[in-house]
């Protein structure tokens, strides 16, 4: 019984939080995330952003202008110019988003990093919720 209770705790906690959120209208911290994806140039960034939106993996993708990057690649210090995508989505979609972007991205190892959204404008967070279908 103790082992079963420990194993069921995450599921029960998640259900309780969802029920609380539905009743009170409050936001469940971490339900949504922002993913960061780097791209070689603006055309690749637009193509990837459109592909993400076509698959309904995000509510919004911001394309940020060029930035300089310094990084180690295969033991050498490299410098490049990159375009950054900011992808607003459900946290539950991050795995699918990452797999999809890796399948279409020209980089051998694309940067795909996500951070959960702790708090924000409740109406905006609700809009993300409505814009990205559940699993």
UniProtKB/TrEMBL annotation:
One MF annotation (Gene Ontology) recorded for this entry: copper ion binding
A Pfam family hit: CutA1
SUPFAM superfamilies: GlnB-like
Keyword vocabulary terms for this entry: Signal
Record family assignment: Belongs to the CutA family.
Subunit structure: Homotrimer.
Protein name: CUTA protein
């Amino acid at each position: 019984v103790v082992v079963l209770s420990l194993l069921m705790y995450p599921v029960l906690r998640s259900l309780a939080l969802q029920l609380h959120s539905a009743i009170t209208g409050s936001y469940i911290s971490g339900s949504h995330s922002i993913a960061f994806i780097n791209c070689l140039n603006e055309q690749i960034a637009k193509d990837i952003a459109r592909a993400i939106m076509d698959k309904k993996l995000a509510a919004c993708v911001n394309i940020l202008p060029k930035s300089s990057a310094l990084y180690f690649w295969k033991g050498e210090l490299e410098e490049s110019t990159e375009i950054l995508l900011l992808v607003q989505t459900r946290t539950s979609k991050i795995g699918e988003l990452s797999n999809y972007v890796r399948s279409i991205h020209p980089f051998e190892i694309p940067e795909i990093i996500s951070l959960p959204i702790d708090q924000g404008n409740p109406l905006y967070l609700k809009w993300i919720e409505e814009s990205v279908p559940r699993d």
